[in-house]
Amino acid sequence: MATKIFTTTLISLIIIISSSHQLLALNHTPKFFRKFPFPSSAKSSQSQPQLDIHYETKFFQQRLNHFSFFKTPMFPQRYLINTENWVVGSGPIFLYCGNEGDIVWFAQNTGFIWEIAPKFGAMVVFPEHRYYGESVPFGSKEEAYKNASTLGYLNAQQALFDFAVLVTDLKRNYSANACPVVLFGGSYGGMLAAWMRLKYPHIAIGALASSAPILQFEDIVPPETFYDIVSNGFKRESSSCFNYIKQSWDVIESKGQTSDGLELLTKTFRFCQKLKSTEDLRDWLESAYSYLAMVNYPYPSEFLMPLPGHPIKEVCRRIDKGPAGTSILERIFEGVNVNYNYKGPAGTSILERIYEGVNVYYNYTGEAKCFELDDDPHGLSGWNFQACTEMVMPMSSSRKSSMFPPYEYNYSSFQEDCLKNFGVKPRPKQITTVFGGHNIHLALRKFGSNIIFSNGLLDPWSGGSVLQNISESIVSLVTEEGAHHIDLRASTENDPDWLVEQRATEVKLIQGWISDYYQNYKVVFDM
Amino acid sequence: MATKIFTTTLISLIIIISSSHQLLALNHTPKFFRKFPFPSSAKSSQSQPQLDIHYETKFFQQRLNHFSFFKTPMFPQRYLINTENWVVGSGPIFLYCGNEGDIVWFAQNTGFIWEIAPKFGAMVVFPEHRYYGESVPFGSKEEAYKNASTLGYLNAQQALFDFAVLVTDLKRNYSANACPVVLFGGSYGGMLAAWMRLKYPHIAIGALASSAPILQFEDIVPPETFYDIVSNGFKRESSSCFNYIKQSWDVIESKGQTSDGLELLTKTFRFCQKLKSTEDLRDWLESAYSYLAMVNYPYPSEFLMPLPGHPIKEVCRRIDKGPAGTSILERIFEGVNVNYNYKGPAGTSILERIYEGVNVYYNYTGEAKCFELDDDPHGLSGWNFQACTEMVMPMSSSRKSSMFPPYEYNYSSFQEDCLKNFGVKPRPKQITTVFGGHNIHLALRKFGSNIIFSNGLLDPWSGGSVLQNISESIVSLVTEEGAHHIDLRASTENDPDWLVEQRATEVKLIQGWISDYYQNYKVVFDM
Question: How far does the signal peptide extend, from start to end residue (chains A, B) (predicted)?
Fold first, then answer.
């Protein structure tokens, strides 16, 4: 979900990163409101190896407001389509539910669909989510994002209807009425895929919802879940690493009280411009930790940033080891004391350790000489609006179990910020009213079918997803070592066995849905 | 569905009836557009015996637009509630999905729910449909019905969301979170009940959708279905009756060419004011036949009008018999010739026969001295707007199999009329895109559960409903002698065995859903 826009485009060896001052509000009132880093929303690194995929780019005229009947404008919805492998008239249609970002980027990062489509004789379609990428109403992003009255139609139900209308039209145009549609999606796109299967069973026969935190609403899961999982991801590598991070916030806060201290922080963390407050630094660090947990893949990847395999392991290794200049004695001393709330010599050492660690995330290639904060380089603030309207996901960080600064979710101040920033009042019950969530195992035990909720337990979003089978055909695939929708990514030579197996299971389940569909088709039409 | 507003309030022995000039367009372009008589939308006769039911009337503030996030007005949704029999905290909630009319009238005409609620220890709730009765936005019906921009929020999806929000709120207020909700509805209300179960499985555990023509859209059923069923209802009583009616249109048309002829028609049919055209008469007759088919109950009833049991039988008896003045020889002659396209002596006799027949419908008590046409006495044109936007139900009458004037559905002229009358362009695919309908047996064979589609085959709306089981728990209850949602009505001493059995089956199925729910509840929460 587009809370953070990362770009790793190298500009004169300066890495521009998004300012993350909106991520975690710590123990004082949030400057803005809490946002939650879905890496799927991040811009891909342009240096990242591109998948060799082929598609046509098309546009479909969509109604801006599907739920009222007075005249509303249309807007062009972009979609990518590939029919090369499609068994004309009978092969399935694989539809990726575009989420909060450029659809080309999602297509590039969902290699799984492209890899399995030929085996299935499937058409592949990637429709873009309204208000993102090139699918913006009112002629321009500027106009579309002007205020709540133009942004008002940016929501999940309108987006699902877009998909429904588009598929219905495609089926007609391609004489594909009898073709089963299978939905795919990761992160917010996974939520859309699951919800679409539930709301439009006549349009799609099943959904693979990868890392889809459909339960991250209201009081369904404890608000500490997300940051606890991030924290545990560090703790399981090294409790000293966890403790260094946990202790670092106070050091940062205390240093940041003076201009000299800010200068020191700026220098220690290699920012190109002097920090104006500690908040930017805090958010920068918190983003790194959260994203690291999400992309804690077992092999080297370049999803958000070029990273080694098991990046948290490497981050912790460096934090624990400390900068090259740390004396052996100091390290030994720290090793002994790390569990006794030791803050390092005058607080300097701990910050250098932290820098060494997050440098893995922000600068693994070592090409950056300094870091620049950039608020929202691509103007993709769409998710902010969604978070301020229906995607209200309460999150706290626990003083006890989290390595983040303690924070208790405060709905009132969240609401105030949304009113201030967008002129909208959030509707925190909207999602659970429309799509459910409370007691989902009860509601769907005898209702619905053909949904896979796949989750890796390293992914902090897994805590808000479905981690137990609901019924025979609404199932949960959990991998202990998986991170954020790793299953949707293209296969690599380094895929561990469990990932190969997970994907095989998914293929088998999807095959089951499809053959079941064809069989039922025969039964029904022979009736 | 509110196409006709009937009132049988006696005013100086003049029965005011709705002008039905909008019903059937015959072989020339419709004056307005085709509307379809759902009797459920008719105003109840005030002289009709009232059920002895008790409830509190309350209002709930609903958001006018649930699907956009800029500021929209609220409106008061009326609902009737009875908790006398409710087993506090655990008993089920029986929710009637209010349709296009005053909710008090639906409560009065849905005796079934009131009768079974005590046995179930159920709370009973009748929420009113937005834009009907007292649940109008913008402060007044006049404002709400002003134009497409104020009417734009009158649609099924907004209405379902209203129900969802209301139930969620009631559950909280009554500490009824664990209480299963069972939906009921007849006609359009039945469609809403079925759709609500499909879209909001987390809110309701099952739905009894009585006489719900959810398939009366696009090309799912042949457009001739409705009028064919009406016609067959007459034919099965008497083929001569069917033929008299079929022949009457030409006679009416030819008489109506002159002012004297219109005078004669006015006199023959006892209108208080002189007819201005034959169209009013035609629509008046067509309405009568269609409504007669719908309320062709096996016992005397006063649903729309005071009627004898098997009213079509009585209508045909009178049509066949002819007016008291008809000579025996003439009757014998007609009896012999009726199948040979005999039009009666100079066309007079056939009209008198028709009058005798429809008099059963419009004036069974014999109290009316003349009939008055009244366009829309209660200003309830809401259904017209719904029919012009999403409830687009194509209907034709076949030259061959129907007794009605032949008419071929013409979408273009329908669309033109809607543009002219409401400034809206219909969206004929809206309902099938949102709720499905095509291949419903395929789509729902392995999806969803706990829906009863109950239909009586005498009801012309049965042709657009689900008449075969879809799965083990999405079932169809068909009664050969049933008419429009007879099962939802209060029981009477004259109920035939099949009706008693039908209701018992429904109760048993609902009991099954509820005990299944409690069982699953236990399983899920013991997990």
Answer: 1-25
- Same-domain pairing of B171 and B90: yes
Question: B472 contacts in A (CB within 8 Å)?
Answer: none
The verdict on a CB contact (< 8 Å) between A442 and B67 is no
What pLDDT, on a 0 to 100 scale, did the predictor assign at position B345?
A: 46
Task: Note the pLDDT of residue A523.
Answer: 86
Q: A284 and A393: one domain?
A: yes
pLDDT > 60? residue B222: yes
Question: What tokens appear for A76 in the block?
Answer: 């062009």
> B207 and B160 in one domain?
yes
| Minimal-distance CA residue of chain A relative to B429 | A165
| Residues comprising chain B, all counted | 527
Q: Which residue has the higher pLDDT, A220 or B345?
A: A220
| Domain range enclosing A320 | 223-326+349-411
Domain co-membership, A212 together with A229: no
pLDDT at B30: 27
Contact A148 B429 (CB under 8 A): no
DSSP B94-161: EEE---SS-HHHHHHT-HHHHHHHHHHT-EEEEEPPTTSTT--STTSHHHHTSSHHHHTT-SHHHHHH
The residues that bridge with B123 in the sheet, in sequence order, are: B93
State which of A478-482, B297-301, B338-342 shows the largest mean pLDDT. Answer: A478-482
Contact B201 A424 (CB under 8 A): no
Shared domain check, A360 and A251: yes
Whether A54 sits among the annotated catalytic residues: the reply is no
Is A155 in contact with B67 (Cβ distance < 8 A)? yes
Among B14, B292, B70, B6, which residue's Cα sits nearest to residue A155? B70
Instruction: Write down the catalytic residue from A459, A462, A487, A495.
Output: A459
What whole-number distance in Å separates Cα of residue A19 and Cα of residue A5? 9
Query: Which of B158, B202, B386 to mutate: most A Cβ within 10 Å?
Result: B202
Q: What is the pLDDT at residue B16? A: 29
Q: Which of A362-376, B47-61, B276-290 has the highest mean pLDDT?
A: B276-290
Q: Which of A380, A411, A442 is the last residue of a domain?
A: A411
pLDDT tens digits, residue range A19-70?
A: 332 222 222 222 222 344 444 434 334 444 578 899 999 999 999 999 988 8
Chain A hits for B61, CB-CB cut-off 8 Å, are: none
Q: A6 lies in a domain?
A: no
CATH code for position B372: 1.20.120.980
CB A201 to CB B443 under 8 A? yes
- Strand, coil or helix: B81: strand
pTM: 0.89
Has residue B379 got a pLDDT over 60? no
Task: Name which of A67, A71, A429 is nearest B67 (Cβ-Cβ).
Answer: A67
Number of domains in chain A: 2
Q: Would you call A459 a catalytic residue per the annotation?
A: yes
A367 and A251 housed in the same domain: yes
Same domain for A405 and A358, yes or no, is: yes
CB contacts of B152 in chain A (<8 Å) are 68-70
CB-nearest to B201 from A69, A390, A448 is: A448
Write out pLDDT tens, residues A420-438: 999 999 999 999 999 999 9
Kindly state whether residue B342 falls inside one of the protein's structural domains: no
Q: Is the dihedral of CA B328, B333, B336, B338 positive or negative?
A: negative
Catalytic residue among A19, A40, A44, A187: A187
What would the two tokens of residue A187 be? 């992160």
